[in-house]
């Protein structure tokens, strides 16, 4: 007999029999004899929200995660009743609620597949230690079920068999399987019988998830307080689950400026000014593209946020301007800890206005961070966020800083047990006063939000750029993020790859790792391999703790410099491709990186893969994660794939050996794809884009591709000033037709498209544009299957 620990635990309490049912618009309430109430809200046909109260009364409904822009409304809703259950039907799902004990079961409405079913269902334990309830939920795992998501967990993609905790934690030099680390994203997707659904447990207390670890066929989640409040999201496509979740918790409020997708260079720390200039000068001298340079804590006066060290940076405005003239955007770090110093205006203002966090019995929450003893703004107070946002005026508007990097916002405190605030610290929580137990996981998110508000205000009409280390679900609306203090090891290269994929499938695509590793020092080979991966991550930045030597592209000898340059150049060429992927993410919530399981959930081979991923829609990449490798084995998902290096064609659905010396990496393009490219620039905006290159990969069959462009910054695109090219390719044995559908009011600066055909099985003998024959010399066809055509064409026809 399997020991059912959870059931036998005597402290658990359960809902009893349902005695009444009410319907109010989209919300159904079921009340049990023992006062438990289950509220089911039909958010969309495929999204149900489940909320339980153990007392018959619900707290005020408030969430930092759910965006006011979330889609709402359904096409169909019907509630029926039979002897033992209520049945809720939408156009996508059927949900059964047992009258006996409120247990639920959800089915696909079309074919009746059981998707997700309560085991014990909702239960709770009164917590004498913490006050309130420990709220719990358990579900039966379905046959062959796999689990994905949960933010930044540094573990293999598939979470099955593991157990996790969400408590945002500063985790210097974390390792594989360290848990918890910096982020709390209590959202996972389950996949079985080729169908996928998601669960978002919107509870900011310390939460726990168990995927068949404690008990073989049971998945459970619980929290040390708050409500059992979760959203069930049905796909059945996993990409839809992720994009519905992203719709619910928010897409980035604006596109990132194009330069933010360039390469960023960082270290703890570049100072004084002469050192910063030496670094930026070297990038230009060696012609290694770079758009952003970072100042870590040493730019400040005694680590006081919003100040500048007079000794190291006597004239920041001039320096920032000179860097900008050379194409570098300056990004500075801002931490939450405010130094206790009566002479320091930010501190004094915070005191005067009563904006710092306090302990339950009244004293300020005092803790040591870089500046020594600090107080901490309560970012969960909207008034504090407003004040904080105004502090950026000088930095952004006057000095010209282009981005702000929020760190230590878990919050990390060095001299307090648990390395964060004690549980009794009070927070405003937007008027819903509470203790740190509830506010901890959102503290960093609200800091990043306040910073974002500041950048948005003072960078306008340019777009804001913020980076955060800590995050809760929904933080992707305001900011980008990195995976924190990793280590310069081969294992961490693998971890960085999985973390970036996992963040993307957790709704947070603007993510990258400290390339090369933060702690310790990589050798040239590891650094080069990491850059190769990093160019496919939405946020691409080298960063290091700086105490183990240099970590610039030139720090490892000429051979490595050349390899690093070559890959950063590839990134710059791919900027329109990456930007288009970002636009899809910001518009539709489609993750920028797709683990193979997201790409093809029907292929069980993908369910346990970690290394290969799809960047955007058409590029398959797989990093080399071992030293001395000349190549590796990798899995090709469904479809046919061209090597980016030599157009060799690989058939999907199998694992194959791929060559990849140190100056190469397995990169493949999906057949039929049209990949847009810009010329190599040293920074975004260096050169006018006088031609858009389109790499066209032949396919026998059909394929669609998109290219999104706009002014690369600013808000005009929202008013329709963007250019969207939708391409449809139809390849036959002896012809290729490309149709172009254009929309948007932005006029691209170039007049022509340079179209390069790859993998053509025939020699071109005739070309037609918009139904008219053209001469080869008119399109400059010269033997390498490249032609130059007007950007306005609607149909291009090449024939054998
Ligand atoms: C933290 C950050 C790291 C930064 C350092 C100094 O460790 O994670 O990126 O360089 O603090 O500010």
UniProtKB/TrEMBL annotation:
GO terms for biological process: carbohydrate metabolic process. It comes from the Bacteria. The keyword Hydrolase applies. It comes from Mariniflexile fucanivorans. Residues 254-581 form the Glycoside hydrolase family 31 TIM barrel domain. Residues 38-210 form the Glycoside hydrolase family 31 N-terminal domain. InterPro entries: DUF5110 (IPR033403), Gal_mutarotase_sf_dom (IPR011013), GH (IPR017853), Glyco_hydro_31_AS (IPR030458), Glyco_hydro_31_C (IPR048395), Glyco_hydro_31_N_dom (IPR025887), Glyco_hydro_31_TIM (IPR000322), Glyco_hydro_b (IPR013780). Residues 589-675 form the Glycosyl hydrolase family 31 C-terminal domain. Gene3D superfamilies: Glycosidases, glycosyl hydrolase (family 31), Golgi alpha-mannosidase II. Keywords: Glycosidase, Hydrolase. This is Alpha-glucosidase. One of its GO terms (molecular function) is carbohydrate binding. Belongs to the glycosyl hydrolase 31 family. Coiled coil: none annotated. SUPFAM superfamilies: (Trans)glycosidases, Galactose mutarotase-like, Glycosyl hydrolase domain. The keyword Methyltransferase does not apply. Residues 691-759 form the DUF5110 domain.
């Amino acid at each position: 007999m399997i020991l059912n620990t959870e059931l036998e635990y005597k402290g658990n309490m359960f809902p009893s029999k349902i005695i009444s049912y009410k319907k109010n618009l989209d919300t159904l309430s079921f009340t049990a004899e023992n006062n438990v109430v289950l509220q089911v809200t039909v958010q969309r046909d495929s999204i149900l929200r489940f909320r339980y109260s153990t007392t018959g009364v619900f707290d005020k409904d408030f969430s930092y995660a759910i965006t006011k822009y979330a889609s709402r409304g359904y096409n169909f809703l019907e509630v029926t009743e039979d002897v033992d259950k209520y049945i809720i039907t939408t156009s996508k799902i059927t949900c059964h609620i047992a009258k006996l004990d409120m247990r639920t079961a959800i089915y696909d409405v079309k074919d009746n597949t059981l998707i997700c079913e309560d085991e014990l269902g909702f239960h709770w334990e009164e917590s004498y230690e913490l006050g309130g309830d420990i709220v719990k939920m358990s579900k039966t795992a379905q046959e062959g079920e796999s689990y994905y998501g949960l933010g930044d967990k540094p573990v293999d993609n598939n979470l099955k068999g593991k157990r996790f905790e969400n408590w945002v934690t500063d985790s210097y030099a974390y390792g594989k399987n360290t848990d918890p680390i910096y982020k709390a994203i209590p959202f996972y997707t389950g996949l079985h019988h080729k169908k996928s659904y998601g669960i978002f447990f919107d509870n900011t207390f310390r939460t726990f998830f168990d995927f068949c670890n404690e008990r073989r066929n049971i998945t459970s989640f619980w929290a040390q307080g708050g409500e059992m409040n979760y959203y069930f999201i049905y796909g059945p496509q996993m990409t839809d689950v992720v994009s519905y979740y992203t719709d619910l918790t928010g897409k980035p409020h604006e596109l990132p400026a194009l330069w933010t997708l360039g390469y960023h260079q960082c270290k703890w720390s570049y100072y004084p000014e002469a050192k910063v200039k030496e670094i930026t000068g070297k990038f230009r001298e060696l012609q290694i593209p770079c758009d952003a340079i970072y100042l870590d804590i040493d730019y400040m006066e005694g680590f006081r946020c919003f100040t500048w060290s007079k000794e190291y940076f006597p004239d920041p405005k001039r320096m920032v301007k000179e860097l900008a003239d050379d194409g570098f955007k300056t990004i500075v770090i801002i931490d939450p800890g405010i130094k206790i110093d009566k002479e320091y205006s930010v501190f004094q203002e915070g005191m005067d206005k009563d904006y710092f966090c306090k302990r339950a019995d009244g004293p300020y929450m005092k803790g040591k961070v870089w500046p020594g003893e600090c107080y901490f703004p309560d970012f969960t107070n909207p008034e504090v966020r407003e004040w904080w946002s105004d502090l950026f005026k000088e930095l952004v508007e006057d000095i010209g800083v282009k981005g702000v990097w929020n760190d230590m916002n878990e919050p990390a405190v060095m001299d307090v047990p648990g390395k964060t605030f004690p549980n009794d610290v009070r927070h405003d929580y937007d008027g819903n006063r509470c203790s740190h137990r509830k506010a901890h996981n959102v503290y960093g998110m609200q800091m990043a939000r306040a910073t974002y508000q500041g950048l948005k205000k003072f960078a306008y009409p340019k777009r804001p750029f913020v980076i955060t280390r800590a995050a809760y679900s929904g933080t992707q609306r305001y900011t980008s993020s990195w995976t924190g203090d990793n280590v310069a090891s081969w294992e961490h290269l693998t971890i960085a790859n999985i973390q970036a994929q996992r963040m993307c499938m957790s709704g947070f695509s603007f993510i990258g790792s400290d390339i090369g590793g933060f702690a310790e020092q990589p050798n040239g080979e590891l650094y080069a391999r990491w850059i190769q991966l990093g160019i496919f991550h939405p946020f691409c930045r080298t960063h290091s703790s700086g105490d183990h030597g240099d970590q610039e592209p030139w720090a490892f000898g000429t051979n490595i410099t050349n390899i690093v340059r070559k890959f950063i150049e590839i990134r710059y060429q791919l900027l329109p491709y990456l930007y288009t992927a970002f636009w899809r993410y910001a518009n539709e919530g489609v993750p920028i990186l797709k683990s193979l399981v997201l790409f093809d959930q029907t292929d069980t081979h993908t369910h346990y893969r970690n290394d290969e991923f799809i960047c955007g829609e058409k590029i398959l990449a797989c990093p080399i994660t071992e030293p001395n490798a000349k190549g590796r084995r990798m899995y090709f998902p469904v479809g046919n794939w061209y090597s980016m290096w030599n157009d060799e064609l690989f058939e999907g659905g199998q694992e194959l050996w791929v060559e990849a010396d140190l100056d190469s990496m397995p990169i493949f393009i999906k057949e039929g794809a049209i990949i847009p490219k810009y010329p190599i620039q040293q920074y975004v905006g260096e050169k006018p884009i006088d031609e858009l290159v389109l790499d066209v990969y032949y396919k026998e069959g059909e394929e669609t591709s998109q290219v999104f462009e706009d002014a690369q910054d600013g808000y005009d695109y929202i008013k329709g000033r963007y250019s969207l090219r939708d391409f449809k390719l139809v390849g036959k044995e002896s012809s290729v037709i490309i149709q172009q559908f254009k929309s948007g009011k932005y006029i691209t600066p170039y007049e022509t498209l340079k179209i390069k055909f790859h993998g053509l099985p025939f020699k071109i003998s005739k070309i037609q544009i918009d139904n008219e024959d053209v001469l080869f010399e008119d399109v400059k066809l010269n033997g390498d299957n490249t032609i130059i055509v007007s950007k306005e064409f609607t149909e291009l026809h090449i024939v054998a």
